[in-house]
Amino acid sequence: MKPIWVVDDDQSIRFVLEKALAREQFPVRAFSSPRDVLKALDDDSPQVLVSDIRMPGGSGIELLNAVKQRHPGLPVIIMTAYSDLDSAVSAFQGGAFEYLPKPFDVTAAVELIRRAVQESLREEVGDAIPAATPEMLGQAPAMQDVFRAIGRLSQSNVTVLITGESGTGKELVARALHKHSPRGDAGAKGPFVAINTAAIPKDLLESELFGHERGAFTGAQATRRGRFEQADGGTLFLDEIGDMPFDLQTRLLRVLSDGQFYRVGGHQPLKSNVRVIAATHQNLEERVRQGVFREDLFHRLNVIRLRLPALRERREDIPMLTRTFLAKSARELGVDAKRITDEALARIATFDFPGNVRQLENLCHWLTVMAPAQVVELKDLPPEILDAASMAAPSVPALATAGPALPTEAGVVHAADGGMLAPLGAAAVATPVPPWLAELRRDARRRLEAHEPDVWELLSQQFEAGLIQTALEITRGRRIEAAQRLGIGRNTITRKIQELGLPD
Predict the structure, then answer these.
(1) Are 410 and 396 in contact (CB under 8 A)?
(2) Which of 94, 111, 159, 379 has a C-alpha 20 to 30 A away from that of 200?
(3) From edge to edge, which strands make up the β-sheet containing 275-280?
(4) pLDDT range class, residue 294, cuts 50, 70, 90
């Protein structure tokens, strides 16, 4: 392995890092100025570069930029005693592996350097992602059924109703149906026009769909073509059709029945040759029973129905989708694509993703920006993924919830960490219980059932002692800093140490 290069004008920093790295069997080479590093790069290169940010004869940021030009993949850790925003931003914009503020804990610094070494030694992932993202991805049987259906419908202009939860990719499927139909790329290349009927106010939706004549209403200063006219010869995608106002459903039914419609304020019937694809996350049969969706329109739309599976129903696709979205995010941001460990992928695959594929894509955007290294590890995942995936197996019957729960195929609600669901008031709310709290409850139950005395005082003392001892270990016995980290006063921590009989 190549040596770790440490550059700092402070001889004591170089000495401490050299000794600490040598104890961990890392070869080290120390420099006192950026000029010496640039000269050494002519003949050699490091495994990892650790550089101060402000030094005589050049800055660490300038050195970072120069090194990245020669060795783009080299991990560079920037150290600084000036913990300001500009320094941090400049370091990360320059491609730094991590930003290490001084004074630092030597053990933590060595661990960070170890991570950088692992990154530099890690081989490229074998199954590289192609430069162009495919239309849709999925090896799961449920997705293969969708692909087969798109293939069967490729030579047809039949009306299709796409159902599925939000974020499952209903518009992607609609675009694929259009592209591979006689109206799309395979045929006359007619337009694909999409409209979200739930996102447009009721007063404007009619004009959006059918257009309007000049002077039809206040502000209508010119004639405007609606979406049906714009989509002539192509496909009109009506997203969230289940939320369309009831009176507009009647006009839509008439267009689907005879192909004729009127602009708002118009008297001349117009015809449009449009294939309609509709989508909804609603249960349209239930909407019909409630009297808020026309039954005849439902049957007109429900010629061919495609149901898209939720992401939790196709977990085997999550690793492939994650790598694809990481590559896509990198292209969009103009940065190197991040790789991800198998352990982190396995943890992501356990998450239920209530927002489905869209939520997974957003997660990959977050990791591309926020993960500190080029390889995403388990500890780099956001808390909602780590907390939810640390769950155990037990479950309880479904409860009425005031907030989002994690439904399973069997209709059972799990706490996000696999623990109990804590009831709040009359309507029980699915509240994740951390593992430590679940263990505390089990210990308290055992003691209470055994009629042990002073359970409250005993467990409270153990809890406080554990917090204070941990804070003192982290701060190396510095009481004031430990109190600050715990969010208590220095007099409080001193009193508690005495009351609890903790070692001074």
Answers:
(1) no
(2) 159
(3) 192-196, 235-239, 275-280, 160-163, 304-307
(4) very high
Pairing relation of β-strands 275-280 and 54-55?
A: unpaired
Q: Which residue has the higher pLDDT, 220 or 299?
A: 299
Which residue spans of the chain are classified as CATH 3.40.50.2300? 4-121
- How far are the Cα atoms of 202, 281, 285, 287 from residue 290, in angstroms, in the given order? 20, 16, 9, 5
CATH of 311-389, one of 3.30.420.40, 3.40.50.970, 3.40.50.620, 1.10.8.60: 1.10.8.60
Which tokens belong to 462? 């153990």
Domain at 4-121: CATH code = 3.40.50.2300
Q: How confident is the model at residue 187 (pLDDT cuts 50, 70, 90)?
A: low
Q: How far apart are CA 6 and CA 37, in angstroms?
A: 9
From the options 3.30.70.360, 1.10.287.1490, 2.40.30.10, 3.40.50.300, give the CATH code of 152-307. 3.40.50.300
How far is Cα 190 from Cα 159, in angstroms, rounded to an integer? 16
Mean local confidence (pLDDT), 152-177 = 90
**Distances in whole angstroms, Cα of residue 457 to Cα of each of 370, 371, 454, 483:** 43, 42, 5, 22
Q: Structure tokens of 314?
A: 């196709």
d(CA 121, CA 125): 12
Q: Within a 10 A sphere around the Cβ of 290, how many other Cβ atoms?
A: 9
Identify the pLDDT of residue 504.
Answer: 65
Spatial contact of 96 and 76, defined as CB atoms under 8 Å apart: yes
Task: Quote the CA–CA distance of 26 and 252 in Å, as a whole number.
Answer: 72
Please tell me the pTM assigned to this model.
0.57
- Helix (H) or strand (E) run with residue 435 in it: helix 435-449
Query: What are the φ and ψ backbone dihedral angles of 267, each rounded to 5 degrees?
Result: -125, -5
- From the options 1.10.10.60, 3.60.21.10, 3.10.20.740, 3.40.605.10, give the CATH code of 439-500: 1.10.10.60
**pLDDT of 108-138, one tens digit each?**
899 889 888 887 776 333 334 444 455 677 8
Model confidence at 194, pLDDT cuts 50, 70, 90, reads very high
pLDDT above 80 (res 281)? yes
- Average pLDDT of the chain is 81
At residue 359 the predicted structure's pLDDT band, cuts being 50, 70 and 90, is very high
Q: Where in the chain is the domain with CATH 1.10.10.60?
A: 439-500
Average the pLDDT over 401-428 and give the result: 33
